Amino acid sequence: MAILRKDLIRELRTREMIISMILFVLLAMVIFHYAFSVKEDADLTYFTGGMLWVTFIFAMLLGLNRSFAQEKDERCLDGLLLCPVDRVTIFLAKTAGNLVFLLIIQVVAVPVFTLFFVSRSYVGDLVPFLIVMLLADVGICALGTLLATISMNTRSRDLLLPIIFLPLIVPVLIAATGATTLIFAEGAGFGDLLARVLFLLGFDAVFLVAAYGTYDFAIGE
User: Fold this and answer.
1) What are the structural domain ranges in the chain?
2) Where are the beta strands (DSSP E) in the chain?
3) Angstrom distances, CA of residue 212 to CA of 69, 89, 100, 151, 216
4) Closest alpha carbon to 20 in 104, 91, 135
5) Measured between alpha carbons, how far is 175 from 185 in angstroms, rounded to an integer?
6) pTM here?
7) Cα–Cα distance for residue pair 109/178, rounded to 1 Å
8) What whole-number distance in Å separates Cα of residue 176 and Cα of residue 165?
9) Taking 80 as the threshold, does the pLDDT of residue 218 lie above it?
10) pLDDT single digits (tens) 92-106
């Protein structure tokens, strides 16, 4: 909680990461809107899942690069490593912080996205969508935090992180995209999304366990 509180206060003071991520998401949506709206009555509902999650994943890359950059550059990481706690605690705090930032972005972006791309009312499908979004967010943040830790000690960390993050996040992208498209385009219920929800839950569990078992080595090297 102390690490999470420190990260949140620092970001609220500077607002550099949040503002840049929100601007990226909104600009990407505007570009998608004009790129795919070849005619006025074009139905873009079946493209919603892909556009939404691709935008979120690339926006999250901006935040992941900064989540450890200041800790490393200002040597705050040395102080964290000297704390008498399990180093997995650092992973959990950083993952929670990234999750909070991603949720803030989504609170701003999802209403704008539905205004641009969704032609039907989705109020009745809000609960399945929130479940899919939360499970996908946990997977993105858990995997991203682990890989950001691994890449932060390299000279080309800004280049290395996308190279190792994007291929590994493809399963989450496929499941979240399919589920989101079903919800927005067809109004699918929770039963129709069960396979994708279970897949996202399994993905989250696998990488949380993997991070728990390897984080001490990842952050110590």
Assistant:
1) 2-220
2) none
3) 22, 9, 20, 17, 8
4) 104
5) 15
6) 0.86
7) 19
8) 16
9) no
10) 888 898 899 899 899
101-133 in b/e burial notation, b at 16+ Cβ within 10 A? bbeebbeebbeebbebbbeeebeebeebbebbb
- Give the whole-angstrom CA distance, residue 195 versus residue 176: 11
Tokens of 206: 């696998």
Closest by alpha carbon to 68, among 163, 152, 165? Answer: 152
How many other CB atoms sit within 10 Å of the CB of residue 218?
20
* Three-class secondary structure of residue 83 per DSSP: coil
Tens digit of pLDDT for each residue in 30-68? Answer: 888 777 765 556 566 677 788 889 889 988 888 887 777
Residue position matching structure tokens 């190792």: 164
Place of tokens 């539905």: 114
Cα dihedral across residues 100, 106, 111, 114: positive or negative: negative
Task: Please tell me the distance from the alpha carbon of residue 64 to that of residue 162, in angstroms, as a whole number.
Answer: 10
Q: CA-CA distances (angstroms) from residue 181 to 44, 118, 122?
A: 10, 10, 12
How many other CB atoms sit within 10 Å of the CB of residue 81?
12
Residue with tokens 């490393």: 72
CA dist., res. 113 & res. 136, Å (int): 18
Give the separation between CA 143 and CA 163, rounded to whole angstroms. 13
Q: Comparing 141 with 121, which gets the higher pLDDT?
A: 141
